[in-house]
Amino acid sequence: MTEVKTLGLFLITAVAEIVGCYLPYLWLNQGRSAWLLVPAAFSLAAFAWLLTLHPTAAGRVYAAYGGVYVFVAILWLWAVDGVQPTPWDLIGSAVALTGMGIIMFAPRYG
Fold it and tell me: What's the half-sphere exposure (Cβ side, CA atoms, 13 Å) at 65?
């Protein structure tokens, strides 16, 4: 799988996970409809399925995915929550993405 495809798949996966968690948050903390749990469940199921599409060891995928999740969560903070990320948020995201790149794209021997 190419680097661009891997990163794109991770980005879609992160959005699916965040939506799947955000909708119950709206129900529990903002008094929205319990019906939000239905699309939340579908979103979390899609999240789990998307993680299986990577052609490498599951543990490596889960570890690397965490870096992309951090980045997307900071974008969510800005786009959905309306909170501008601090320079520290951006630096932390860059570090997390760097970790993802090392884990997923480093040469493998043996």
Answer: 23
